Amino acid sequence: MTRRYAAEFVGTFGIVFAPVALATRGQLSGGEAGLMAAAWVSGLAVLVMIYALGHISAAHFNPAATLGFAVGGRFPSPIMPR
User: Fold this and answer.
1) Mean pLDDT value across the chain
2) List of residues 6+ apart from 50 with CB closer than 8 A
3) Distance between CA atoms of residues 14 and 50, nearest Å
4) By the 8 A CB rule, do 11 and 53 touch?
5) Is 39 helix (H, G, I), strand (E, B) or coil?
6) More confident: 7 or 66
7) What is the mean pLDDT of residues 52-77?
8) Tens-digit pLDDT profile for residues 36-45
9) Closest Cα to residue 61, out of 7, 3, 2?
10) Which whole-number Å values give the CA distances from 77 to 35, 41, 54, in the listed order?
């Protein structure tokens, strides 16, 4: 179970880190990261995390969505901590 939680943490971190890194790079280089670049980076981050970690954690990298599904009874309870 710890491996599953670690995979979810790393996946969420990667999905949040990628667009923030793009925006930071744009600010530091004096340029601007366009909306299309941000969309591509975010989408590719999700794609990479799903392929890299999906077999471990079922690729549900949004903690808010996971919690919402669990509260609504639509998420398998053995996966959620008690």
Assistant:
1) 81
2) 11, 59, 61
3) 11
4) yes
5) helix
6) 7
7) 80
8) 888 898 899 9
9) 7
10) 38, 32, 18
